[in-house]
């Protein structure tokens, strides 16, 4: 018998595995992207803020679809019962709506026609392709990787807190109504993370599965980072791609 042990194949302890997952955020989460520094410190023009709201809409409206894609492959009713709350957070009830409607209130608050934003017409091709890659990943990859890809939410409350403070301090459009989306996420995301982190730590117990979960989370940080790279290139550097929203389009009559 071969006595040489390949340590790379030894499973990580639960604590080591969690630390590796968290390290992905330390190194790669989009809180470190220069667009976020600019947005949160009041450095964005209103054109840049509007471009962010329009493009981020693609992510917002796709999140429940990627969660539905996950549910469609999930055989365990207990897991489905927990996971479906993610769709409820975004879609909400008929009367009140949920995160999606709150995002459109932000769109209106920054002076955009919410019907235009909701149509997705102005979204850049790059944003669409990137977000689509996330939906496909969750639809096609093994369940542990699909679930682990959502764990960027571990790092989201810190950026949402920073965003709420930064928007309120620096922009006239920011008020209780327009930032409601981010306030709700402060309680929704930790609820999702508590369950999903525990599930991933419990179910990815072989080294290959643990590495696949870490790779899934890394992929997701790329999804988030690449969206901001595209946004910067188009609206800070001024290379707006054909067909995408142009500053000045789809304005509400009275712009803030
Ligand atoms: O503003 C952000 O920086 C940010 C990041 C993330 C994330 O880390 O994926 C999400 C959200 N917001 C968010 O609002 C949200 O609903 C959400 C769902 C998910 C997911 O992968 O299922 N991520 C995120």
TrEMBL record:
Keywords: Oxidoreductase, PQQ biosynthesis
Gene3D superfamilies, alphabetized: Heme oxygenase-like
Broad EC category: oxidoreductase
GO molecular function, one term: pyrroloquinoline-quinone synthase activity
InterPro entries: Haem_Oase-like_multi-hlx, PqqC, PqqC-like, Thiaminase-2/PQQC
Domain of life: Bacteria
Pfam family, one: TENA_THI-4
Catalytic reactions of this protein: 6-(2-amino-2-carboxyethyl)-7,8-dioxo-1,2,3,4,7,8-hexahydroquinoline-2,4-dicarboxylate + 3 O2 = pyrroloquinoline quinone + 2 H2O2 + 2 H2O + H(+)
Pathways involved: Cofactor biosynthesis; pyrroloquinoline quinone biosynthesis
Gene Ontology BP term (one): pyrroloquinoline quinone biosynthetic process
Family membership noted in the UniProt record: Belongs to the PqqC family.
HAMAP family membership: PQQ_syn_PqqC
Described purpose of this protein according to its UniProt entry: Ring cyclization and eight-electron oxidation of 3a-(2-amino-2-carboxyethyl)-4,5-dioxo-4,5,6,7,8,9-hexahydroquinoline-7,9-dicarboxylic-acid to PQQ.
Protein name: Pyrroloquinoline-quinone synthase
Organism ancestry: Bacteria, Pseudomonadati, Pseudomonadota, Alphaproteobacteria, Hyphomicrobiales
């Amino acid at each position: 018998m071969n006595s040489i042990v390949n340590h790379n194949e030894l499973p990580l302890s639960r604590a080591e595995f969690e630390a590796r997952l968290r390290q992905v955020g330390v190194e790669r989460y989009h809180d470190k992207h220069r667009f976020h520094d600019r947005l949160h410190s009041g450095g964005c023009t209103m054109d840049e803020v509007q471009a962010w709201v329009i493009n981020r809409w693609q992510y917002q409206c796709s999140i429940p679809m990627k969660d539905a894609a996950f549910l469609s492959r999930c055989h365990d009713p207990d897991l489905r019962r927990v996971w479906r709350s993610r769709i409820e957070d975004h879609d909400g009830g008929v009367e009140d709506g949920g995160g999606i409607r709150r995002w459109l209130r932000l769109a209106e608050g920054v002076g955009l026609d919410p019907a235009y934003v909701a149509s997705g017409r102005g979204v850049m091709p790059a944003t669409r392709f990137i977000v689509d890659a996330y939906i496909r990943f969750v639809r096609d990859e093994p369940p542990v990787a699909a679930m682990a890809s959502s764990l960027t939410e571990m790092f989201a409350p810190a950026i949402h807190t920073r965003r709420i403070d930064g928007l309120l301090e620096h922009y006239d459009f920011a008020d209780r109504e327009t930032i409601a989306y981010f306030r709700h996420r402060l309680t929704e995301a930790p609820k999702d993370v508590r369950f999903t982190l525990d599930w991933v730590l419990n179910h990815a117990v072989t080294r290959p599965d643990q590495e696949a979960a870490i790779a899934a989370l890394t992929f997701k940080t790329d999804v988030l980072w690449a969206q901001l790279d595209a946004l910067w290139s188009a609206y800070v550097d001024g290379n707006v791609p054909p067909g995408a929203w142009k500053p000045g389009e789809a304005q509400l009559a009275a712009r803030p």
